[in-house]
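User: Here's a chain of 572 residues. Predict its fold as tokens.
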Amino acid sequence: MANLNRRGFLGLAGLGAAGALGVGAFGRAPWGTWYAAADTLPGTTLDTVATPVGTTGYRALTAGPGWPVVVRGELAEPRSGREDRRIALASLVQLTDVHVVDAQSPMRFEYVHPFTGSAFRPHETLTTQGLVSLVQRVNAVGSGPHTRRGFDAVVSTGDNTDNKEHAELGWFLTALNGGTFVPNTGAADRYEGVQNSGADLYWNPESPILDIYKKAGFPQIPGLLGAALAPVTSPGLNTPWYCVFGNHDDSVEGTVPSGIGPLEAMYTGSLKFEVPGSPEQARAVDIATKFDPAGVPAALAALTAPPRHVTPDPSRAPFTPRQFIAAHLDPANTGPGPVGHGFAPDAGETGIGYYSFEIAPGVVGISMDSTNRAGFVDGSLGEAQFRWIEQTLRDGSSRFHDADGRPVTQSRDDTWFLLFSHHTSESMGNLLPDPENPGERRYSGAELVALLNRFPNVLAWINGHTHENRITPRPGPTPAQGFWEINTASHIDFPQHARIVEVVDNADGTLSLLTTLIEADSPYEARHGDFSPTGLASLYRELSFNDIHADASPLGGGGDHNTELLLPSPRG
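Assistant: Prediction complete.
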């Protein structure tokens, strides 16, 4: 491990005691100091950020100024001269909530989007093109912008698929591993989904119909749907990658539990409900999916508008958690490695979706399965997994605190821990019994935070689910017991981010986590009618920004973007 080149580390000479930098523009933020990088790495949001043109209506995007780095010292005070002493320990990329969508599936509830905006997105036919563009960006950047350490790992923190279909899973795996695939189900020669239904509930891109999206300024783009179904080629990631379960990888539409016969049959059936008989009927379906899964078939049966006949396709069949894991373990899906992408060799049989893995020497990742097999959006952890996490942390800690707060010292080689899950601490309140293990206790996010606070070697808990950028300090009873919770926006909804995390030892009794957001490598300016892979990926971003259900909250504030997150080092 080499000391960082001080010039390569954004030219951070002249740090004052408060952490203010003597380069670029700098000023005060609620957390401390922010600075503009003097030596940015192209391809990150340190350099440029997607920015709308104009202030109203349907807007194009262009390259705006990059975001500065915000130094956050809530858990440890930044010390002067640390840029000259730093040692890079690890560098990784988090992808999250890529939601690869089979937009033509009969098992979707698009018509409830007036109540639940994520039920339909105008850009959902382009998720694979957007993901491949993100893969290309990760490969092009290749290393942490601050340390220049090559990426040790890429971790996808759940909602890899949108509706737990085998087709979606195959596209996701090929996009990350490399290869060519056709993002189409049903008829081979045409699109059969809501975007050519003629219903004004949806954006009909190839039709002049004045739907509610065109009333908001959306364009007409003849030929788009056919182009969206053309073969897609991905180079695959250059870095070993690891996978985490999300609720959309486990439940119907990320909400309804698996195993409801009539719904399972709809996946591979030939009837697609595109419009309800009335808004009240749509609302009834929406309420049932959120609060009464057993009532969903009855709510669907009550729809009075006739369904559309579509071409059935067995590749739309829903996968089980074990099948999801088995697909990752298939040698044909190894790509850049590792075999299984983190899942244990027997996990396809046991169904255990959690594991640990070495990110870099002395830095270990703990991948958690926070989904609840009982369904619904939020998650929790089972007793066996919770105790496994505790034991894994014990095994890598020479000092920690027991459940009563008493300090414990033991002879162990210390390991730094980064934890990964789909759900956040605040979205892990679903304590319904696991149908596969109904007698097992479930643990909430608050209980997990309390567990992690017992172990000073825990640096961060990295997650997704909210589709927002949020970074939150989780202080413990003593300064050494705090960690950072790092929540990253999705890649299906704007701003379509992924996040680089670099771990460095400042050699002064502190550590820093350096977080940098990245965007896909497609141009910001979308040219309507450009059906090249990059043109479609650019359109994917532009449409997501203009989605009538989008808002600014996923962006987060400056302290949630590009940051330096300080921590005390328990090793001194």
